[in-house]
Design goal:
The chain has 137 residues and is α+β, with helices and mostly antiparallel strands. It has one domain. It is 26% helix and 33% strand. It contains three helices and eight strands. Strands 1, 2, 3, 4, 5, 6, 7 and 8 form an eight-stranded antiparallel sheet that branches. Strand 1 and strand 2 form a beta hairpin. The radius of gyration is 15 Å and the shape is globular.
């Protein structure tokens, strides 16, 4: 697990799948050539079925995010296309917030993020539409 300033991040999970169609114009909300809205929506449903409380997907410069309810920090799953070839994807989880918990030495975001990462990996591993799943540190 990496820490980027106030943000903790899981390893990247990369894979191939032709199941997530690019929605025309979706990269106007991210950056040109960055897709993943259909993947993010699919993952939100899979996480909901696994007992998490995901919110509606949101666009960021780097891709599409699934907010996942967690207190006192915020958890997200980021989804984005990878490379020039269609059907190549990457996802990772990250946590933000919880400044007071960090200051008081009670930061539990790493544990919450580890639980989310395990569920995320399981969602991908168990889906027959996902191929070549690998973890990048």
């Amino acid at each position: 697990m990496r820490t980027l300033g106030a943000m903790k991040q899981t390893p990247l999970l990369e894979f191939e799948s032709s199941a997530f169609a690019v929605i025309p114009g979706e990269d106007r909300e991210t950056n040109p050539g960055i897709y993943g809205k259909a993947l993010a929506q699919w993952l939100a449903e899979r996480l909901r079925a696994a007992g998490f409380a995901p919110g509606p997907v949101i666009a960021e410069d780097f891709g599409w995010c699934v907010p996942v309810q967690s207190k006192p920090h915020s958890l997200y799953v980021a989804c984005a296309s990878r490379g020039e070839k269609s059907g190549q994807w990457r996802v990772f989880g990250f946590a933000e917030g919880g400044l007071m918990a960090r200051l008081l030495g009670k930061d539990r975001s790493a544990e919450s993020l580890a639980v989310l990462f395990t569920a995320l990996r399981q969602c991908l591993q168990s889906a027959p539409i996902i191929h070549g799943l690998r973890e990048e540190a």
